[in-house]
Amino acid sequence: MDIISLRKRIDRLVHTHSSSLIPEIEKSGFSCACCGWCCCRNFDYDVRINENILRPSNAISIFPGDIRRIIKMTGCKWDEVAEPDMYSCVLEEEDVLVIGWILKRSNEENCVFYRNGVCTIYSCRPLICRCYPFFMGENGIEIMYCNSLKEITVHEKVHENSVKISKALKRYEIKKLQSYIRIIEQIGDKLKLNIDSMKSLPDDFSGNVIVFDGEKISKCKL
Ligand code: SF4
Ligand code: SF4
What we know:
The protein is of the alpha+beta class.
């Protein structure tokens, strides 16, 4: 991951019209069934990022802007909305450097805003939640696990959703790549941000960490 190739990817995306993503999204027949699967921890479908990182489905990466929007709408404090992303860490001598934030999880290991079977912050939910189950890979759209994917005839609702998701997906991907660049700049040359060298912290980890989120550097206790 280097700044020049990230900038090239951003440039390509900026010149990609979001409508070109619609057919692929429509083809999946996706229309969210609001089952809450992606808001909760599910052990059967963990995603392996590299040899050291088995990322559970409830590790939902969010941007500082998402956190501020939720704080504004809910009146929650920062640490009631977000926790350091313990699945994206670099161990640097005595320090644990954490790359970014994930949505805060409840004692039941669900997103803390998933209550009684609904998203309680739906209108201000993070950008990533607006895109799920779609992500942009290097070679186009990738589809994560979802309970509501089926081959169906495209009807008006599917089309309407696909248009919204295509716009959110483009926005999310550009924001994500810009944020990688800022994090690389924050961390500086002393550390190469290499996905293969990143690690998860053990579930029972307790101690201080330093979070780099592209905007500020925060010291937190886990
Ligand atoms: S798993 Fe799919 S259908 Fe269920 S809430 Fe998530 S996006 Fe919607
Ligand atoms: S913010 Fe809402 S949509 Fe996103 S994971 Fe939490 S409950 Fe689900």
